[in-house]
Amino acid sequence: MVINHIGTNNSILNKFIAEIRDEAIQKDSLRFRRNIERIGEILGYEFSKSIDYVNQAIKTPLGIKNIQIPAKKMVICSILRAGLPLHQGLLNYFDDAENGFISAYRHHPKKDKDFEIIVEYFAAPDMKEKTLILADPMLATGQSLIAVYEAIKKTRTIDHLHIISVIASTEGIATIKESFPANTKLWVATIDDQLNDKGYIVPGLGDAGDLAFGTKL
Predict the structure, then answer these.
(1) What total of structural domains would you count in the chain?
(2) pTM for the complete prediction?
(3) How do residues 93-111 score in pLDDT, each as one tens digit?
(4) Cβ-count burial 36-69 (b if 16+ within 10 Å, e if not)
């Protein structure tokens, strides 16, 4: 797996990351969603530098100009529900991409810290000979990404895979490296070193889904 840690270089990305982490600012759910969306735009731009391009002759009112455009069609597939603002940010830049959605949530059968990942909903177009962008804002233990990847593989052919996350843990990255193809590319805004005993990223930001859309039962 190729890891692209975008936050290692100072840019305006730092401001958006600071605001989604800040416990005072993140209480504004509208601002939280917008910041995740803007981070998605930045990650999408960085990701766009790595894909293949083909030449296309564009007719202007005054002549012809050859321009390099993306060679392959794309499918943006987000993990519900937390992935929706990140999905929108990517879609702002790849506006002709097809779209997929998959649900994944932690189920605690014994009502303790142990959990399993439940995948119940999946809707997406054909992915053969396309670039799949799998969007999940929080890469904590990595188990959700592995679960959705295995679910997608059951009904879709995945030829080119990129994972886009806002915050990842070093442990989560190490875990998914064992389960994803070697040519998978991870694009992440920032990386934290720790997980707590419940499998949440520390210092992280909390529950991205709750911060974006409100608490759930």
Answers:
(1) 1
(2) 0.93
(3) 999 999 999 998 776 667 6
(4) bbbbbbbbbebbeeeeeeeeeeeeeeeeeeeeee
